[in-house]
Amino acid sequence: MIAEFVLPISLALLWLAGFYFTLGFTDNKISYALALASSALILWKELFFLAPFEKFSSILLAYIFVASLAVALVTDFYEMLIPRFCSLWLIPFWVLFSYLEITPISFYESISGAILGYSILFFMGVSFKYFTGRDGLGEGDMEFLSMIGAFVGPCAVTTSLYIGSTATILVGLPYLFFIKKDLKARLPFAPALAIGALVSFHICLF
């Protein structure tokens, strides 16, 4: 089917356009995102060229997914920023591709994963603000986890959140206490979510 080739290639071109557009409005730290994204794609090709991504179109989408995780990891770590071409803008495409059966999860799994990913962090953020009076999670984190859920499904949402939360507690809290010496300082959450998403991808799909 033509759509299986045209749509993923079109998305890849749009993703690259979004990347270079963002590159023009940020400082040189974004170059680290390009390097890490390239490394992630090479690693993906060498180690994870496996079913259920046996078609060119689905492999290309997997590349875009991994590159988005890599870019968000670096930009959030350095700039506390998650570009929307790596999160919100990808969600309708993941849902569409699941409907067309290009990705290995069903249409309903994609929708439920997107809704679950956003909802969990939204209610966590509301609850945190209610009890502390401070914002604990940004909109970008919610959109990012929603994107992960739309591509891999509800299983990835819970697994990514568990791994991400555990990594934040084990690494982030000691960093705030011993280095920052300020427990109220904000920590980037997307890097932990991205690492959790890569792990959960193989747990949930392979």
Low-confidence stretches: none
Beta-strand fraction estimate: under 5%
Q: Using the CA coordinates, give the radius of gyration.
A: 17 Å
What's the number of extended β-strand segments?
0
Biggest pleated sheet: none
Through-space gap between termini? 25 Å
Give the ordered list of helices and strands: HHHHHHHH
Q: By helix and strand content, what is the structural category?
A: mainly alpha
Quote the average pLDDT: 78
The number of helices is: 8
Portion of residues within helices:
over 70%
Shape: globular
Describe, in plain words, how this protein is organized in 3D.
The protein has 206 residues and is mainly α. 75% of the residues lie in helices and 0% in strands. Helix 3 runs antiparallel to helix 8, helix 4 packs parallel to helix 6 and helix 6 runs antiparallel to helix 7. It is globular and about 50 Å long. The model has no long low-confidence stretch (mean pLDDT 78).
